[in-house]
Design brief:
The protein is α/β, with parallel strands linked by helices. It has 13 helices and 26 strands. Helix 3 crosses helix 5 and helix 10 packs parallel to helix 11. The chain is globular, with a radius of gyration of 23 Å.
């Protein structure tokens, strides 16, 4: 573990207002006062609903063998349950390096390097899913071609995970198989879209015959950026677009989702490039670069392309595996407060643009990566005692928006990078999350016509953007047993017919006003 320095604390704010329209007015600012930011919400025009299972998690397939998945063996099930009702995905790169062994006494093949999934693992996962009320997407091995084994694993999953099994996914990122040796992912068949679809059909037919009724979704293609406005569009055009088009053409009629992966950056140093080359390519971002408007704009463009293809095909777009920096993140950046603020902005963008679910990828055995929670050492892992990273509190805050209908929102930030998302909840509450991704304080004004009464505010607090510890939400930290109990909220009186809250540098205001 690295030693963390103590840093000055800043505040990230999540602003939640209820059904009463809000209007805030800002007083004239002095030259050295925080910059003025105005958020205008049209509460009269609710749009699409953010699904209740919008916030999901993605894990490597070999982790299905871990004992910490068992409810009651530690705090993992409680940490997951705090996030509401989401989706657990077990697949990723290791699905193609993990063997299905229906008889645990059978030795695993040499290519699996000891990694296996057994029927008992599926039972443990099914118990966890039922305990937390989450669905499961399970990957099956494609790189070591064996439709019969995949079908048998799907049958066992149907029996042992039961109704919590939402889908089976065939392989992981087949559009990058030809890069497997370069990326350290092992040998892969160099698929093109048509040849992948032919093999995927063989898997689908075998699964349909052996495990009837089990849904198969895909294509779970890779999408990533290097931070380059010249290179990134070429990756999307050559390695994403044709694959999605082929998948829709071959399997769209029998699918519910269009699953895509995306990372705006890749830690290119971890694929063998020198530090200087990686930095030149943009693959080693700082916290500031992660939080930049340019990064947000690139992400938005990618997401809009996915949503457009899915919508035209009548499918639900999902970011089935995603996070900030591929190849296990970047220490001090992806596990920092800046990474958490990126998470808030990214999840809000995905929800606003029409994505129906986001599975944030986890490396729980690497606390310096980008996981929401992780095991700091072997003893913690054996005991199932995970600790939350800053990203956990970001997901915890955004999960409060799930189930709400999105409201038209505009942000006047004077050119500063401040984002916002507003929703109307089923009980009439209006929640407005404002994310300040700048290193300067902001005086945030949220305008929703007809505000009155005293509101309550809860805040997500941390240090500087580089801080990797000290983050809390709603005045509280997660307890050792994984439970989360918010502190008493801050009372915010109406001023000039609305509510006004400051947002410290690198922050986000949850203002809850009483309903009529």
């Amino acid at each position: 573990m690295s030693t963390q320095r103590t840093r000055s604390r800043r505040t990230a704010v999540v602003l939640t207002a209820v059904s009463l329209p809000l209007a805030l007015s800002a007083e004239p600012a002095a030259a050295d006062a925080p910059s003025a930011v105005t958020v205008v919400v049209d509460a009269s025009s609710p749009g699409r609903t953010i699904p209740t299972d919008f916030v999901g998690l993605s894990f490597e397939a070999n982790l299905m063998h871990e004992q910490w998945l068992a409810p009651g063996s530690g705090n993992v099930s409680t940490l997951i349950g705090n996030l509401g009702h989401g989706n657990l995905r077990f697949s990723a790169n290791q699905v193609d390096n993990t063997a299905w062994t229906p008889d645990p006494a059978t030795p695993v093949p040499a290519w699996a390097k000891g990694q296996r999934v057994t029927p008992d693992d599926l039972s443990r996962l099914g118990t966890l899913a039922r305990d937390v009320g989450w669905s499961v997407d399970m990957g099956v091995n494609l790189a070591h071609f064996d439709p019969a084994a995949a079908a048998d694993q799907a049958r066992a999953a149907k029996d042992r995970i039961g109704s919590s099994l939402r889908s089976v996914q065939i392989g992981n990122e087949p559009n990058f198989y030809l890069l497997g040796p370069v990326l350290g992912a092992g040998e892969r068949k160099p698929y093109l879209p048509a040849s992948y679809a032919d093999d995927a059909r063989r898997y689908r037919d075998a699964i349909a015959a052996t495990a009837p009724g089990v849904a198969v979704e895909g294509p779970n293609t890779a999408g990533a950026g290097l931070g380059s406005p010249l290179v990134d569009p070429l990756i999307t055009a050559g390695l994403v677009g044709p694959w999605l088009d082929t998948y829709v053409d071959r399997f769209g009629a029998e699918s519910r989702f269009l699953n895509q992966h995306y990372y705006p950056f890749v830690n290119t140093a971890r694929v063998g490039l020198s530090g200087g080359s990686s930095d030149a390519l943009g693959g080693l971002p700082t916290a500031d670069k992660l939080m930049s408007r340019d990064t947000s704009d690139r992400q938005t463009a990618f997401i809009r392309g996915l949503v457009d293809k899915a919508t035209k095909a009548g499918l639900q777009p999902r970011l089935a595996e995603t996070n900030s920096v591929a190849k296990e993140g970047l220490p001090g950046v992806t596990n920092s407060l800046g990474g958490a603020l990126w998470t808030v902005d990214y999840l809000m963008t995905a929800a606003r643009e029409g994505v129906t679910g986001v599975n944030l990828h986890m490396q729980p055995n690497d606390c310096e990566s980008y996981p929401l929670f992780c095991f700091p050492d072997d003893a913690a892992r054996a005991a199932g005692q995970a600790r939350p990273n800053p990203n956990y509190y970001a997901a915890l805050a955004v999960s409060r928006l799930a189930g709400g209908r999105i409201l038209p929102t505009t942000v006047d930030s004077g050119g500063r990078h401040v984002s916002a998302l507003a929703v109307r909840m089923p009980d009439g509450a209006v929640k407005v999350m404002v994310d300040n991704l700048e290193r300067a304080d902001a005086d945030v004004t949220v305008k929703i016509e007809g505000a009155a009464g005293t509101a309550n505010a809860e805040r997500l607090t941390g240090g500087t953007p580089e801080s990797t510890d000290g983050t809390t939400f709603a005045g509280a930290a997660v307890a050792a047993d994984g439970s989360f109990t918010p502190a008493a909220p801050e009372a915010v009186p109406a001023v000039g017919g609305g509510y006004r809250l400051g947002a410290d540098a690198a922050s986000a205001v949850l203002l809850t006003a009483p309903g009529r």
